[in-house]
Amino acid sequence: MAYRRGEQQMTKIRRSAAALALTVAAGAVVAAGSLSPANAATQKYVALGDSYSSGDGAGSYGSSGACLRSANAYPELYAKAHPGTALSFVACAGAKVEDVLGKQVQALTADTGLVTISIGGNDVGFASVVTTCTFGSDAACTDRIAKSTATATTALPGKLDTTYAEIKTRSPRAQVVVLGYPRLFASGPAFCAISQTKRTALNKAADSLAEIIADRARSAGFTYEDVRDEFAGHGVCTSNPWIHGIRPLAVAESYHPTLAGQKNGYHAALTNAIG
């Protein structure tokens, strides 16, 4: 009888130990489920591109130097709005396709989940076009735009194909969103230092560039997000512009999105594309 009572006591001890183990395990599960966003699984996001992605024009550039990476740029706004996003922000003002392929793509990894990019404007001579159209005659402006459009039609598609293929190779499982460029100016009559002839030609050039970039992005299987709708009614010389005109004390910001343009234009477009 003493032996049987001892055996019963040991059984009770084993059951109590098992119950305690289950309680501890359950507590661990609950604790894991209540981790803060900082400790939760992260999505790796790489922001590639030129000044329209770096946030040139939106201020707060920190220590980014000539790249003009703004704390108000749409990649930063997206990361802040999505806790758990690990942002690698390598877009740089003045970047061309060769800069993306030469350095920026090194930020891409096999486990990158999201990639955004705006590229192509500098490859077709954006700076030269706007300079000529700002200070030159209508004829000089339209002639320079024609040359830029020819370059966009003949040389840019191949460059974009190479860029997009490299992104896909380095980050095959990433969702890639290619963002376009806005029309810069108000359409139709407006009180503006730039003539209507120039504004019309520049806006048509923006449309041509958008069609080329959209075609190559979709051919690569990427999402193309057209920002012209978001910026409609907010170009230079409108009553509520989201794009800077000429800025004598900050020339690099001329004809680039303002803080409102990054927030209500680009960030809104990106959110619309992926949620």
From TrEMBL:
Domain of life: Bacteria
A Pfam entry, by short name: Lipase_GDSL_2
Catalytic residues of the enzyme: 51 (nucleophile), 256
Every SGNH hydrolase-type esterase domain range: 47-263
Signal sequence region: 1-31
InterPro entries: SEST-like, SGNH_hydro, SGNH_hydro_sf
The entry's keywords: Disulfide bond, Hydrolase, Signal
Any one of the GO BP annotations: triglyceride catabolic process
Alphabetized GO MF terms: triacylglycerol lipase activity
Cysteine disulfide partners in this protein: 67-92, 133-141
Protein name according to UniProt: Putative secreted hydrolase
